[in-house]
Amino acid sequence: MVKNKNNQTIWNTRIKKNSSNFSQKIGSSIDVDKRLYKEDINGSIAHVEMLFKQKIISFRIKNKIIYGLRKIEKEITNKKFEFNKKYEDIHINIEKRLFQIIGEEAGYVHTARSRNDQVITDFKIWIKSANHKIRMMLNKVIINSINLAEKNVDTIMPGFTHLKNAQAVSFAHYLMAYVEMFKRDEERFKSNLNSLNENPLGVAALTGTSFNIDRNFTTRKLGFERPTNNSIDTVADRDFVLDFLYSVSVCSLHLSRIAEELIIWNSDGFNLINLTDKVVTGSSIMPQKKNPDLLEYLRGKSGTTFGNLFSMLTILKGLPLSYFKDLQDDKEIIF
After folding, report:
1. From 47, 132, 283, 302, active-site residue
2. CA distance 294 to 286
3. CATH 1.10.3900.10 given to domain 116-212+229-334
4. Superfamily covering domain 5-111
5. Which of 37, 85, 135, 185 has fewest C-beta within 10 Å?
6. Which is catalytic among the residues 20, 162, 210, 284?
């Protein structure tokens, strides 16, 4: 391995002058992507285990790197790690600290990979986890709605078209309409796993690497189902981000609709339901009022969610292959 004296950036011999403070501030994403630290560390560990398996690095170096990465993980978890905007992102922040802990051999962690495939790997793992959490919460909403419906089969209420009284319906039947919506939401998130389960690690910056790596090994280690097929597409791909944002937007739309229903039913004009004091607020000048603020917040937040989807679509619409810095904003939009 060529020595990296003073732990300089890789492009140091090509670009002689340091970036201006302004450029560093604009280019830094550490305030956003530092939450990917666990995914980044686990990805690096799987990567060096693969490098050892393929006889690219020694057993001693592998263990040394893993020791350093686990130490960094503890430091971040215990809030003893200093994130530095000078080092741009979570990947370089971790790598710089690894050099401080184990020395020059930390450079081997970057063998046969680029930040391009590293960040997509981290990001996919994070979205997979978020996808799982959302599906669990949706499942709770569905179960609670079904339980409420079972208690209200004989509860009769007016059914509306055009917000005009139309036909008498069972409240249970009304609730089950939303259960169907949330079940479709759950299915959408489940369908997203198909693309999320493709492992990007190993495609490097654009066209792969000349090292004899084993992408199937890292695929198994990181919980993916298969490696991606095309390295250029992998680096440029953010369809999985759009799929996730679309699913979130449709789910948010459904939540907004049910929030609107409850606001209307609670209004003095309809007076069908009373909201518990736990979810209403008062007025500073009209003490008789109980305002459904939380439902209004919920209804309003859908606009922000839709905006995130359109922001990502707009970023992607004019990008040729393959990686561009425009894509750095994807994580802030998702988070």
Report:
1. 283
2. 18
3. no
4. Fumarase/aspartase (N-terminal domain) (1.10.275.10)
5. 85
6. 162
Tens-digit pLDDT profile for residues 19-61: 777 777 788 999 999 999 999 999 999 999 999 999 999 999 9
pLDDT value of residue 3: 47
Whether residue 157 is predicted with pLDDT greater than 70 in this model: the reply is yes
Q: List Cβ<8 Å contacts ≥24 apart for 148-152.
A: 148/175, 149/173, 149/175, 149/176, 149/179
CA distance 314 to 256: 24
231 carries an active-site annotation: no
Active site residue 162: yes
- Sequence ranges of the domains in the chain: 5-111, 116-212+229-334
Residue-wise pLDDT for 280-334, tens only, equals 999 889 988 999 999 999 999 999 999 999 999 999 999 999 999 999 999 999 9
- Within 8 A by CB and 6+ apart from 53, the residues are 214, 217
Is the pLDDT assigned to residue 253 strictly greater than 80? yes
- DSSP helix, strand, coil percent of the chain (3-state; round to 5): 65, 5, 30
